[in-house]
Amino acid sequence: xxxxxxxxxxxxxxxxxxxxxxxxxxxxxxxxxxxxxxxxxxxxxxxxxxxxxxxxxxxxxxxxxxxxxxxxxxxxxxxxxxxxxxxxxxxxxxxxxxxxxxxxxxxxxxxxxxxxxxxxxxxxxxxxxxxxxxxxxxxxxxxxxxxxxxxxxxxxxxxxxxxxxxxxxxxxxxxxxxxxxxxxxxxxxxxxxxxxxxxxxxxxxxxxxxxxxxxxxxxxxxxxxxxxxxxxxxxxxxxxxxxxxxxxxxxxxxxxxxxxxxxxxxxxxxxxxxxxxxxxxxxxxxxxxxxxxxxxxxxxxxxxxxxxxxxxxxxxxxxxxxxxxxxxx
Length: 329
Hints:
The protein is of the alpha/beta class. Helices cover 46% and strands 15% of the residues. It contains 14 helices and seven strands. A seven-stranded mixed beta sheet has the order 3-2-1-4-5-7-6, sandwiched between helices.
């Protein structure tokens, strides 16, 4: 569990993180479509929850997900907010290139959203809240602007899955505590393995961009599934599902879905993860299922502890992030 920071400390974190992502926007080479079909089904999210609806991404970065929801998700209005001018410039360029009229990008702080209560039908954040200095506060703010009955989704670094990266970060922070450029240089020199894997995952993306997102970042937090479930409870949000699943039995449902075949390419660079996943797909009898489970039982402490441990042992850094969805009551 992260320490509670003062407003001054949060402002300093914001300034440093925003400055880094303005100079080094991330990502610029994600193939969003290959991951969304399987991810959403495993989270228990049906297209009716966002099709024709007003959606929000908190911390949209370069806008890949906003544009996916606007085009493939067929939402009425897809809004993305971020503070990084460099990232927003990329997002607006992608919007113009794709002529995506129902996407809008705004410069805005996710900790202080300039929207009224109960405004969006569907809100999400993928891999951003844990670098704000107040992860739960950012989640509460996203819930505030979501309508009762609307879906919220949060994706953040996991205490277990992020552990190998966290150890490397601690080493580099000792060597270059106030010099992100030096940390990146040292990280690329002494810890090249993860970047080779991620370069395959992102189809040859420049290693330097990955290094800044991993070792250049001035501040980040890691959280367990139990912590996030506590946030849902305090925010009056009912659990829907998790990606990757937090109950062993839910893996058999996940790997019975034919959408896994599209997602499989995201395991490129992680051969052990890919082999285990392929085996689960074969055991589960992969099929093209039109059936959705839109409400999974909340995982107990033993189940979620076991699953998170498996993310570390089998998934490595591929499962450094995990996602939980819920419905605002």
